[in-house]
Design goal:
359 residues; five-stranded antiparallel sheet; binds adenosine-5'-diphosphate
């Protein structure tokens, strides 16, 4: 039997070291590529609209929204042009299924180009929305300001007219109050819509909150000779919610119920748990003037006020229900309305709860 002899000399040692260097270089290269790929995927996923990364003029990666665009010839031509001219290019891509897009080719490196596609329809709709919103707000601000200016001028005309002076003073005070409320509501809405908005959730006894809100509006209801009843089913689950915000929802609904219900009407507030859906269901019902069917789909829209068929003018900004809806949505709930003209309106909102412990 012959012995197997391995000879391990300087050449072999050099070969092993070289092998190790090649292996570790390979590992580092693979790791770096993997990281770069993950970073690019992360970058593309961060865009809410189609985003595609090209290497030369071939698409390399895209986010989910950009998948269908990867083979688009117009985009490939745009990328080739951006590379050839070595500059960023912005171009409108002709309508695809009725929608126009604005494509932005951004040079990232010698070989890489990022293409972002913005739906121009969405941008135009948003612009139209803000234009409309600013027009409506200006109109809402202008009416009380004109009244204030008119009465301030009147007060200066004849300082001896004590009665006229007092009337003007009251009108100015009320209109200033209306302006303050409008501005407060606008600020609340801006806060609710800001990306940094968070709810301050604490354990909450919602039945107690309802009782407190009813107490708060009871003088007003009495003044208008409205009867209020509260129906509470026994045993409520715990709720972790933003107390101040939810109180605002309840007060907005109660305030509307009072405003839009003629003397002698009734307000009924009820609260029950829906164990199957794991949510609290709160209903605010009135026997008031109701809302025209044509207006119903819009009453939660910003600054929308339904046409009033008859009766006295009612003050308001058309923001109370928008604010209520935003707050309920922030809690993961839903708010809806049912209404019959001259019979009354019923607002229902839900609030999901996590645990099933009794209060
Ligand atoms: P406003 O300050 O005008 O009351 P809201 O956003 O609270 O604004 O309500 C929007 C519109 O919905 C109101 O202008 C009114 O036309 C209608 N509305 C709301 N609640 C009621 C209700 N309980 N009865 C009748 N109409 C209502």
């Amino acid at each position: 039997m012959s012995d197997l002899i391995f000879y391990f000399g300087p050449f072999e040692l050099a070969a092993v070291i070289l092998g190790l260097i090649i292996l570790s270089t390979l590992a580092v290269t693979i790791y770096v590529r993997h990281r770069r790929l993950a970073e690019r995927v992360h970058l593309l996923d961060g865009f809410p609209f189609p985003a595609i990364l090209y290497r030369n003029s071939r698409s390399l990666l895209s986010n989910a929204e950009g998948k269908d665009w990867k083979k688009n010839l117009e985009l490939q031509a745009l990328v080739t042009e951006a590379q050839y001219e070595n500059q960023n290019i912005l171009r409108t891509i002709p309508a695809v299924e009725g929608q126009s897009y604005q494509a932005r080719a951004i040079r990232l490196s010698k070989n890489h180009t990022l293409v972002l596609l913005e739906d121009m329809g969405a941008a135009q709709r948003q612009q139209a929305f803000y234009r409309n919103f600013i027009q409506n707000v200006s109109h809402e601000l202008k009416t009380p300001l004109t009244i204030i200016q008119g009465h301030a001028a009147k007060m200066g005309e004849d300082p001896e007219d004590r009665e006229g002076w007092l009337t003007s003073y009251r009108i100015i005070r009320d209109e200033a109050q209306r302006l303050t409320q409008l501005v407060d509501n606008l600020l609340t809405l801006a806060r609710l819509e800001s990306p940094s908005f968070t709810l301050e959730r604490t354990p909450l006894n919602f039945a107690a909150l309802l009782e407190e809100a009813i107490l708060q509006i009871s003088d007003l209801a009495e003044e208008r000779q409205l009867a209020i009843s509260l129906n509470l089913s026994p045993g409520f689950p715990h709720l972790k919610a933003d107390r101040a915000r939810l109180k605002q929802v309840v007060l907005n609904l109660l305030d509307n119920a009072i405003k839009y219900t003629p003397h002698g009407g009734e307000l009924t507030i009820s609260l029950r748990p829906d164990e199957k859906a794991k949510e609290l269901v709160c209903v605010v019902q009135d026997t008031g003037e109701g809302i025209p069917a044509d207006d119903l789909p819009y009453i939660f829209d910003e600054l929308y006020r339904a046409r009033r068929v008859k009766g006295r003018p009612v003050e308001g900004s058309g923001l109370g229900l928008t604010i209520a809806q935003q707050i309920i949505h922030a809690h993961g709930g839903e708010i809806s309305v049912q209404s019959v003209l001259n019979q009354g309106s019923t607002f229902t909102f839900t609030l999901p709860y996590a645990s099933d412990k009794e209060e």
